[in-house]
Amino acid sequence: MTDIKIFKNDAFRDERGELWTIYKNEFCPELVFNHDKISKSKKNVLRGLHTDKSYKLITCLHGKLQLVVVNFIESSPDYLKHQSFILDADDKEKTSILVPPYYLNGHLVLSDEAIFHYKWSYKGDYPDVSEQKSINWADPTLNIKWLSVDPILSERDSNSKFI
């Protein structure tokens, strides 16, 4: 799916730790990021699948997670196709994924704990949860190969509808 952009940045490491870039304006000069969020979750927590009208630049800051992105634009030839990524904060290449508006995304924590960061680019007011669409993580139409068969879910994600 060509709408999803992948950015890989090398980290500088020495005995003190590491330093890396998540975003530079030259990556997507047409976007204005106006909101950052961080989610900290324990192993086997799955959040999603959710979509809204925003671009999201997603990075794993700590730990390891599986990120799944699904094209949810009905007019697209790639409608309902998905890609799965492993984002590992310990990888030398620090990977960030730019998820386009109206794409579903969800992440599953694979390490004991993970910190998930995303930058939002949206116009107008903050896109509240009530404006999001949610699809059940286990929808058989999508046939996503999650790396857990029994994840920890919120009530919202447990009760999300199938397509």
Characterize the structure shown.
This protein is an all-beta fold and 163 residues long. It has one helix and twelve strands. The strands form three sheets. Strands 1-9-6-11-4 form a five-stranded antiparallel sheet, with no helix packed on it. The model has no long low-confidence stretch (mean pLDDT 93).
Quick rundown:
2% of the residues lie in helices and 45% in strands. The chain is mostly beta strands.
Search tags:
single chain, 163 residues, mainly beta, Jelly Rolls, 12 strands, globular
Terminus-to-terminus distance? 20 Å
Low-confidence stretches: none
CATH superfamily: Jelly Rolls
Number of domains: 1
Strand order of the largest sheet: 1-9-6-11-4
How much helicity do the residues have? under 10%
Strand fraction? over 45%
Biggest β-sheet description: 5 strands, antiparallel
Structural class: mainly beta
Q: Give the integer mean of the pLDDT values.
A: 93
CATH topology: Jelly Rolls
Number of helices: 1
The SSE string, one letter per element, is EEEEEEEEEEEEH
CATH architecture: Sandwich
Q: How many individual β-strands? A: 12
CATH class: Mainly Beta
Rounded to the nearest angstrom, the radius of gyration is: 16 Å
Shape: globular
How are the elements arranged and paired?
Elements: E1 5-10, E2 12-14, E3 17-19, E4 35-42, E5 46-51, E6 55-62, E7 64-71, E8 82-88, E9 93-99, E10 103-109, E11 113-121, E12 133-134, H1 155-158
Antiparallel strand pairs: 1-9, 2-3, 4-11, 5-10, 5-12, 6-9, 6-11, 7-8, 7-10
